[in-house]
Design brief:
Elements (H helix, E strand, L loop, with lengths): L7 E3 H7 L4 H10 L5 E3 L4 E5 H10 L8
Antiparallel strand pairs: 1-3, 2-3
Helix pairs in contact: 1-2
């Protein structure tokens, strides 16, 4: 699946792109390692496609086959 830089993805989808659990993505968001926003009445975390791509490059995940 292609990541759209302009789209916001829920933490669950971001976790799939980043090859980690949703809990780990949320941990990075709370620590500030990853940047995201909380949206909606339930304040669910979302990450931009650009942020997901930045993290994939930073953590060298692009070398891993999807």
């Amino acid at each position: 699946m292609q990541i759209d830089r302009k789209k916001n993805y829920p933490a669950r989808d971001a976790a799939n792109f980043l090859k980690m659990t949703e809990a780990t993505v949320k941990k990075h968001l709370r620590k500030g390692t990853a940047k995201g926003v909380q949206v909606g009445p339930n304040q669910r975390w979302h990450l931009s496609g650009a942020e997901i791509l930045r993290l994939r490059a930073k953590w060298n995940l692009d070398a891993i086959n999807d």
